[in-house]
Fold:
Amino acid sequence: MSRTISISKFVGTISLGLLTGLSYTLSTTTVPPLLALPSATPAHSTFRHLRTLTQRHQLVLSTLSASSLVMAYILSPSRARHPYLLWATLATAVGWGSEAYAKVIGKAEQKGVVNDKRSKNMRKEGSWTEDEEWVNEEGNVNGEVVREGMEGWRVKQGIKAGIWGVGWFMAVVGMWGDGA
Structure:
């Protein structure tokens, strides 16, 4: 049983580290060259593809991390249920929760339920899955809006990297303290 718990802690911590690295790399290395592209159309199509792949990978890694850490907490005997497992899981959930929140706001706005300034800003940040604001009436991509969306998404990825990095640090220090 202790081997299962140790493996769960290890998998959860490694997944959280990968999440941190993914978001950090996106915000510091991947998006800046996209911002330097000379035309908005290839930047837009590349960014859409990048955003889709990123959401998929972040969902898989955050689910794996949170479920592994919670499983380790639940399977641990009562004297070994350390709160760092829950804090690291909370960091994972908070990082991914911003994406889920943006999707809920976007769907509500599509139905006409929400129509405030904050949800419109979230659309421009790239959290919105539709590209209505990115394309003008003639079907051309609006370069300024694409740039604003990419810069907002870049900042959001940096914030996620910070949140997940704190969770990863807590998990590493907690595992070191456990001796797992």
